[in-house]
TrEMBL record:
This is Sulfotransferase. The keyword Nucleotidyltransferase does not apply. Pfam families: Sulfotransfer_3. The keyword Transferase applies. It comes from Pelagerythrobacter rhizovicinus. GO terms for molecular function: transferase activity. InterPro entries: P-loop_NTPase, Stf3_sulfotransferase.
């Protein structure tokens, strides 16, 4: 892809990328014929992100071309979202009762837990094509009455195919398809917010800028986009949403302001595995867009980021009533997923039996995919186990997190004590 774009630019068939805020805003308005972006707060993170992309990301031709397309896609969707809110005011009136929110670091088993719960038809969930393109096109009413096919799953399939061609390892790291249950990270990207940008581009100044800002405006827009997705799915608005993204570890305070009655499931995993896997995920995405990526710098950054996620999660938990949250260990899910899910369903005060057939089907498919496991090590990213233990051993002790290769600290049932 990179060579093709370079060749196209030499021939004049592919225009240079223009990563300038005013130009990108104008292009989106021209493409849609619309001019209402909603809350203009998003321009602040957009400016920080553009500065970091131009100053730090060291993008190759494929990288800056993809960045331009991503910014255009997000801005066009903001304009279309406001169009739908005006055309159908009932969308913003949809209730969002008692969402179930999975909160855990990257690579801590949140995807498995999310997909197990998503098989239960008593809940609503995002699908992968909806996190890529949450906003229907302007002709979507023709889709609803059967006159036209929704193009968004087709687009998602093309994007996934291109990503796998660029780096086939992405399939083993995060297996997915257009209709697979998926996290709502794309709804935060709609406000130019979140760790997705840090996991695909080298933009540390942007990450630190976000860490110092309130995420409430991004979460408010996320909630409205969820209402739009629910409306487009034509499902009952009384079905609780199943949500999950590692971003919630950093922004739990903002999430709880927007979803004050959320029920929270916290996931925990050996931090040596979390840090190594998160660095590997970011590495395998970033090298698609940049030819100058330092693995040791990436390892240090994801160790810092993981430690910050845990620090902020622990601080936010002090304000949450115990009956509103439950802790789930990755190792417990590995050893006995059925028993662990029964404990989760007792917390949710639901009968698990109607959901078990879909859960068993998902676990069969997940086991089949393990024939192509995600392999990584801390050493690849310039880290040793001692580096992780120094930063995160207090978290391990507080939550009784099992460390691979070590005997459990206690035979008592593991639960959070901090």
């Amino acid at each position: 892809m990179d060579m093709a774009i370079r060749g196209g630019r030499r021939l004049g068939t592919v225009a240079p990328a223009r990563l300038e805020k005013d130009h990108l805003l104008e292009q989106a308005m021209e493409a849609t014929g619309l001019d209402d972006f909603g809350d203009r707060w998003f321009e602040r993170p957009m400016e920080a992100l553009l500065d970091a992309v131009k100053g730090e990301a060291r993008l190759n031709a494929a990288g800056d071309f993809s960045a331009m397309k991503q910014f255009h896609h997000v801005l066009r969707d903001r304009l279309l979202a406001q169009m739908w809110f005006k055309r159908h005011p009932e969308i913003l009136a949809r209730p969002m009762p008692r969402p179930v929110v999975i909160v855990g670091p990257m690579r801590s088993g949140t995807t498995r837990l999310h997909r197990l719960l998503a098989g239960d038809r008593r809940f609503s969930h995002m699908r992968s094509f909806e996190t890529i393109s949450p906003v229907p096109r302007s002709d979507f009413e023709e889709v609803l009455d059967g006159r036209r096919e929704d193009f968004r799953p087709v687009l998602a399939g093309r994007i996934m195919k291109a990503a796998r061609l660029a780096n086939p390892r992405t399939l083993s790291i995060h297996p997915t398809g257009p209709y697979e249950p998926e996290e709502e990270l794309g709804l935060l990207v709609a406000s130019m917010w979140g760790m997705k940008h840090e996991a695909q581009w080298q933009v540390p100044s942007y990450g630190r800028w976000c860490e110092g800002e309130s995420a409430v405006p991004a979460y408010r827009h996320m909630a409205n986009l969820l209402r739009l997705v629910g409306w487009s799915q034509q499902v009952s608005s009384i079905r609780p949403w199943i949500l999950k993204t590692p971003q919630h570890m950093l922004d739990l305070d903002a999430l709880l302001k927007v979803f004050p009655d959320a029920r929270l499931i916290f996931t925990h995993r050996d931090p040596h595995k979390v840090v190594g896997s998160a660095a590997s995920l970011a590495w395998n995405q970033t090298i698609i867009y940049s030819d100058d990526v330092d693995p040791e710098r990436m390892g240090r950054e994801w160790l810092r980021k993981t430690a910050l996620q845990i620090e902020r999660m622990r601080a936010a938990r002090k304000t949450i009533r115990p009956e509103r949250m439950i802790d789930v260990q990755y190792e417990d899910m590995e050893r006995d997923w059925n028993g662990t899910m029964r404990r989760v369903y007792r917390f949710l005060e639901l009968d698990i039996e109607p959901a078990l057939p879909a859960m068993e089907d998902y676990m069969r498919r997940a086991r089949a995919l393990k024939r192509h496991p995600h392999t990584y090590s801390l050493a690849e990213f310039g880290l040793a186990e001692g580096d992780v233990r120094e930063r995160l051993d207090d978290y391990v002790r507080a939550f009784d997190v099992p460390i691979e290769g070590e005997r459990p600290r206690s035979m008592a049932p593991r639960s959070a004590r901090a």
